[in-house]
């Protein structure tokens, strides 16, 4: 059975009053690897505390310190559509917890375009849409950032990391954490799986490529609302530089677990993040910029849309899927596991 295409109503009125897709890069990155590494938050730590799914350039290492580690020059391939994008993108991983207490990794569906070995659909959204081509400043080499809290036990201050319980058929509404998305895990069966979205800030301090918490060098714009598309609102004086809005979309194919006799007898939901979190507040997204040269800036200036762009080099899904890296931490992450990778305590 084909995974349903999740069409997104990221539509804006064009100058002729017709709906047009808001200009944004939106492309697929196949899986590079599932591994217990975290080059941003725990550089060099092998194994890192919890499992991630990672996509992008194959220069991925447990430690990627700037400037010694230059992603575009050290990578020989990328798992993403645009072959000049050697960035790395990663999130937590979803597990199903059976009645007998064992865990099974939830497969990831191919992305938006029904292509690739389930990874992440990545978005870069410029400000101003097709008509107002306000300058958007692409990230600089060495730039990196984090959204979300791997230890989160309650809703975050911003609705920027969220879940949607997908219906069986295509889903036409906004993807950026507006209603009906929730920070908590869905509580019932989701016929079309669970979609998770991570939305990064759109304002940068213009100076720091990173910060101790990997967050404070960037900020969300003031006045931006959950359902806005792309950078909206006003950047605060402390973070005046408008950067592209990076967004991750992941489809967790929970369908094989949608049976009453597999779910807990007390009716609670059985999905657990690889952090050990049973409530849903600990998913997170990590980003390490690695586009070659000025390729991202060119694509933003050209207001390219979707996974084609005449100022970028494109590779086939087959080529992208060939790009994988071996797991650094040799452990089973796919069988029925007695404990989560890293023996995470459930919370
Ligand atoms: C635990 O439950 C799962 C799902 O029902 C099953 O596939 C697995 O074999 C069980 N493991 C043990 C040790 O009983
Ligand atoms: C274009 O967008 C910028 C930034 O949001 C805004 O300041 C400016 O007024 C807009 N220009 C037009 C013509 O809408
Ligand atoms: C997991 O951690 C618990 C303590 O939190 C310990 O009792 C148990 O032996 C550990 N299990 C494995 C397989 O390491």
Task: Write the SSE topology.
Elements: E1 11-13, E2 19-21, E3 25-29, E4 31-35, E5 52-56, H1 71-74, E6 88-92, E7 94-97, E8 103-105, E9 120-125, E10 144-148, E11 161-165, E12 194-199, E13 203-204, E14 218-219, E15 241-242, E16 245-252, E17 271-273, E18 284-288, H2 295-301, H3 317-322
Antiparallel strand pairs: 1-2, 3-9, 4-5, 5-6, 6-18, 7-8, 7-17, 9-16, 10-18, 11-12, 12-16, 13-14, 13-15
Bound molecules: 2-acetamido-2-deoxy-beta-D-glucopyranose (NAG) (3 copies).
One 2-acetamido-2-deoxy-beta-D-glucopyranose (NAG) is lined by residues 127-128, 132, 134.
Keywords:
binds 2-acetamido-2-deoxy-beta-D-glucopyranose; globular; disordered N terminus; five-stranded antiparallel beta sheet; 5% helix; DUF1996; DUF1996 domain-containing protein; 347 residues
């Amino acid at each position: 059975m084909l995974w349903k295409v999740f069409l997104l109503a990221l539509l804006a009125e064009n100058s002729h009053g017709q709906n047009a897709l808001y200009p944004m890069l939106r492309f697929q990155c196949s899986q590079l690897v599932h591994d217990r590494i975290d080059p941003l938050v725990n550089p060099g730590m092998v194994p890192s505390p919890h499992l991630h799914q990672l996509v992008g350039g194959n220069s991925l290492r447990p430690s990627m310190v700037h400037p010694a580690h230059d992603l575009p020059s050290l990578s020989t391939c990328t798992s993403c559509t645009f072959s000049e994008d050697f960035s790395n993108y990663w999130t937590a991983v979803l597990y199903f917890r059976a009645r007998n207490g064992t865990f099974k990794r939830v497969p990831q569906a191919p992305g938006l375009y029904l292509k690739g070995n389930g990874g992440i659909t990545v978005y870069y959204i410029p400000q101003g849409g097709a008509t107002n081509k306000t300058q958007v400043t692409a990230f600089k080499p060495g730039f990196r950032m984090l959204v979300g809290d791997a230890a989160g036990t309650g809703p975050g201050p911003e609705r920027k990391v969220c879940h949607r319980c997908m219906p069986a058929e295509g889903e036409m509404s906004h993807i950026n954490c507006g209603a009906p998305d929730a920070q908590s895990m869905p509580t019932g069966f989701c016929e079309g799986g669970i979609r998770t979205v991570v939305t990064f800030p759109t304002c940068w301090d213009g100076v720091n490529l990173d910060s101790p918490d990997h967050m404070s060098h960037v900020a969300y714009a003031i006045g931006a609302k959950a359902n806005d598309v792309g950078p909206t609102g006003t950047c605060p004086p402390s973070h005046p530089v408008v950067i592209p809005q990076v967004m991750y979309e992941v489809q967790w194919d929970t369908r094989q677990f949608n049976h009453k006799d597999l779910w807990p007898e007390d009716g609670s939901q059985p999905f657990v993040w690889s952090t050990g979190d049973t409530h849903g507040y600990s998913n997170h997204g990590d980003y390490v910029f690695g586009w070659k040269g000025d390729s991202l800036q060119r694509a933003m200036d050209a207001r390219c849309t979707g996974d084609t762009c005449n100022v970028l080099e494109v590779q086939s899904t087959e080529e992208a899927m060939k790009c994988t890296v071996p797991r650094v931490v040799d452990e089973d992450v796919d069988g029925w596991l007695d404990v989560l990778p890293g023996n995470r305590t459930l919370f």
